[in-house]
Specification:
By secondary structure, the chain is mainly alpha-helical. The protein has one domain. It is 64% helix and 0% strand.
């Protein structure tokens, strides 16, 4: 017997509002296909992230984590080379090392706090799964940065403004970080956590650490007599100094 009043508006399917996020992992047979190499990992993280989430809970997750970290390392070196092409010289090898090291060090620094917040939030994700989500976050970030690399290279060859190039790279980094954190948030939603307060707090910590890392490893653009800075600065003070100081040509 139909209990819906005749004049009531038609009911909208729940799937229209993203109810697919509530579907248990593994319900789609394609999600069970193993991620065996870097190419498959890249395709999966871009097209089928649930496939990554499922394999991180199964045997062989350590190999997948290694594959994603290797891909992130290669992509960060490529993007770092584009960053270094702005000033040329020693920056052609220094910038790639700093970009890759900065991302990996940021992930290592922030990993313990994410695991603690996950446990406090009632998440059932183990340490291995948390490591895999962070590795996926870094891989997706660097993939997007490589996608932006041709645009960054074009501006690097057509302008001498260090300030402008720094702002452009920050915009690219911010976009890549947003999509990377979206991947991590989707993975975290399948861990049966009771609250997202810890994850939100961790995201703020991750962004602050990553931005400070760009200051700690300066310069990434322009030239310098030393590989690393000789003075300590907070990133806001560093940005203020860059805005207030005259900008010499990079070459």
């Amino acid at each position: 017997m139909n209990t819906i009043p005749p004049n009531a508006p038609p009911q909208i399917p729940l799937s229209s509002f993203g109810a697919s996020d509530l579907v248990p992992l593994g319900s789609n047979p394609e999600e069970h296909e193993p991620v065996s190499n870097l190419v498959v990992a890249i395709e999966s993280i871009l097209r089928q992230p649930r496939r990554i989430f499922l394999q991180l809970r199964q045997a062989g997750a350590g190999a997948l984590i290694g594959i994603m970290l290797f891909g992130a390392l290669v992509c960060s070196l490529i993007y770092g080379a584009v960053v270094g092409s702005f000033s040329m010289g020693t920056q052609l090898w220094a910038a790639p090392l700093k970009v890759a090291a900065g991302l990996l060090i940021t992930a290592i620094i922030c990993l313990p706090s994410l695991y603690i917040f996950a446990c406090i939030s009632g998440s059932r994700a183990g340490l291995r799964e948390i490591c895999g989500l962070v590795a996926g976050l870094i891989l997706l970030m660097t993939l997007l940065l490589v996608g932006f690399a041709p645009v960054a290279w074009l501006f690097a060859q057509s302008t001498e403004s260090v300030l402008w190039m720094g702002a452009l790279h920050l915009v690219f980094w911010f976009i890549a970080t947003c999509f990377g954190l979206r991947f991590l948030t989707q993975g975290f939603s399948h861990s049966q956590a009771r609250s997202k307060a810890g994850l939100v707090t961790w995201i703020a910590i991750f962004v602050l650490v990553a931005v400070q890392m760009t200051t700690a490893l300066r310069p990434l653009l322009g030239k310098s007599d030393t590989f690393l800075p000789t003075t300590k600065k907070f990133f806001i003070a560093h940005w203020g100094d860059c805005l207030n100081s005259p900008q010499p040509p990079a070459r």
